[in-house]
């Protein structure tokens, strides 16, 4: 679906993303096929942050790859703003756990890479990159190469690169997993602030239950494979939802974390 069509659809009641009865079986023609994703349905609303958690190896990344069209589904459908998916729309940003920065390009040039490929004029893409780097606390580091940046700074550059083409929807696959606690909180807050301020939608895959609760409007808990949605939690916390530490001080925060951990205490049949 063209980016322009996504822009037209944005702001209406049609959810940015909807998955219906999504299923994935690997090796269907083999003697022992493996069903990884089994009958998953959910929607991501405009301006909503949803986290997906589940047991290790349950198929979270496979689900994300199905949603963005990197692998075909065995059955079921994916719709972007009401239109059947045909690959990954241009208005979707996908960020992985590894920053995958190009070592021979500066922070600024890494951020502008996607815009450069799309033919955006040099002045426009550099201005956009400078704004994002400043917003993410990297003022003064535009000309630094990845080898001179800390892990947290590299992830900020990767996030800026993901945001550079102004996606309506962000798909994040454990992007903060390798960071220390303090850096993780800071980048989580930066991400939540940018997403909520600009009314983007975001789907976050994470193993960190506290991260899921503090950042999200909803948390989907997946079962062991073939994975399905086991439970859904609507997160209602008071205070500034862009401040991850403030969210963790809400008395209900611990209750959500405990309940979700309880749902994860399952074993394969």
TrEMBL record:
GO molecular function terms noted in the UniProt entry: ATP binding; ATP hydrolysis activity
InterPro entries, per the entry: AAA+_ATPase (IPR003593), ABC_transporter-like_ATP-bd (IPR003439), ABC_transporter-like_CS (IPR017871), ABC_transporter_ATP-bind (IPR050166), P-loop_NTPase (IPR027417)
Tagged with keyword Nucleotide-binding: yes
Keywords for the protein's UniProt record, in alphabetical order: ATP-binding, Nucleotide-binding, Transport
Transmembrane spans: none
SMART domains, alphabetized: AAA (SM00382)
Domain of life where this protein originates: Bacteria
Domain ABC transporter intervals: 17-249
Pfam families given in the database record: ABC_tran (PF00005)
Family statement: Belongs to the ABC transporter superfamily.
PANTHER family: ALIPHATIC SULFONATES IMPORT ATP-BINDING PROTEIN SSUB, TAURINE IMPORT ATP-BINDING PROTEIN-RELATED
UniProt-recorded name of the protein: ABC transporter ATP-binding protein
Protein's organism: Skermanella aerolata
Lineage: Bacteria, Pseudomonadati, Pseudomonadota, Alphaproteobacteria, Rhodospirillales
């Amino acid at each position: 679906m063209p980016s322009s069509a996504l822009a037209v659809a944005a702001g209406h009641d049609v959810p940015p993303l909807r998955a219906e009865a999504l299923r994935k079986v690997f090796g269907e023609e083999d003697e022992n096929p493996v069903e990884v994703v089994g009958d998953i349905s959910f929607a991501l609303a405009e301006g909503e942050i949803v986290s997906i958690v589940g047991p290790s190896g349950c198929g979270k990344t496979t689900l994300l790859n199905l949603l963005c069209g990197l692998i075909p589904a065995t059955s079921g459908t994916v719709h972007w703003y009401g239109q059947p998916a045909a690959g990954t729309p241009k208005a979707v940003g996908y960020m992985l756990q590894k920053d995958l920065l190009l070592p021979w390009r500066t922070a600024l040039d890494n951020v502008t890479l996607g815009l450069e490929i799309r033919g955006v004029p040099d002045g426009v893409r550099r201005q956009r990159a400078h704004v994002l780097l400043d917003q993410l606390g990297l003022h003064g580091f535009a000309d630094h190469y990845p080898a001179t940046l800390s892990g947290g700074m590299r992830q900020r550059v990767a996030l800026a690169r993901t945001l550079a083409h102004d996606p309506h929807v962000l798909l994040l696959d454990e992007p903060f997993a390798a960071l220390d606690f303090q850096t993780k909180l800071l980048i989580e807050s930066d991400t939540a602030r940018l997403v909520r301020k600009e009314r983007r939608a975001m789907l976050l895959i994470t193993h960190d239950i506290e991260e899921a609760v503090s950042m999200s409007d909803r948390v989907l808990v997946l079962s062991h494979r073939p994975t399905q949605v086991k439970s859904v939690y609507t997160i209602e916390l008071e205070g500034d939802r862009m401040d991850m530490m403030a969210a963790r001080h809400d008395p209900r925060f611990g209750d959500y974390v405990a309940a979700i951990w309880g749902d994860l205490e399952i074993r394969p049949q």
